[in-house]
Amino acid sequence: MNNELETTTPTRRVWPWLVLAAFLMFVALAIFWVSREVRRVRSIDRFDFRPPDKAAVDPLAGFREALTGGDAPAGRKIFFEKPEASCARCHRVDGQGGENGPGLDGLGSRQSRGFILESMVAPNAHITEGYESVGVVLKSGTGLAGVLRGEDATNLVIHTPDEGPVNVPKSEVTRRVAGLSPMPADFATLISKDELRDLVAFLASLTTNAPAAR
User: Fold this and answer.
1) Which of 31, 35, 94, 118 qualifies as a FRET site for 188, CA 20 to 30 Å off?
2) Three-state SS for 19?
3) How many domains are contained in the chain?
4) Could you tell me the residue range of the domain that residue 25 belongs to?
C-alpha cells in the first residue's frame, strides 16, 4: 500500500502545473495573434484607397482633344494677339516676340504635338535649359523675377518680362529663390480648349528654323 501511494503522489502533484503551463501558453499565443491583427488593421487604415489624381498620372488628361486637328492660322492669331495667352510676350516666332522664353521657330520639326501640349498644360514638366526663372528680394523691399541670364561674383542678370535684362548687384539681394517655369502653371485654363488646340496646331506647323543672324 505504501509503495502505491509513493508512485501516484508525484503524478498528482505534476498534473496542475502542466494544466497551468498549457493555459499560459494559450494566453501568450492569443496575445500574439491579437497584437498581429491590430498591426495589420492599422496598416490597412494607413493605406490610401483613394484613386490617384489623374492629372498627376497623366498631365494631358482632359486636354487630349488638342492633340489632333486645330486651325494653325487661328492659332497664330492667338499666339500674337490674344491677351489671355500673351505667348509673344516671352517667345519669338519669325523674329517677332519676346526673349524671356525660348524661340519657337522649328519647334514642330523637333517635338511632337504631345510634347507641345504638355509644355502648355504642365509647363514645369520640361524647362528648357537656360530659361529657368529666379526671384530675388532686395534690401529696398522690392522684388524682381525673371529668367537668369548671367551671374558672376558680384552681379545677377535677370531678364524680366517688362524691363528686359536687369543688372542686380548681389550685395542688394536679401533673398534668392529658384523659380519654376516663367509660363503660368494654369495657362491651359486661360484659353478655351478649342483655342488650345488651334495653338498646338500653329506651333506644330513651325517646321522652319529662324534665319541665321547676319
Assistant:
1) 94
2) helix
3) 3
4) 1-50
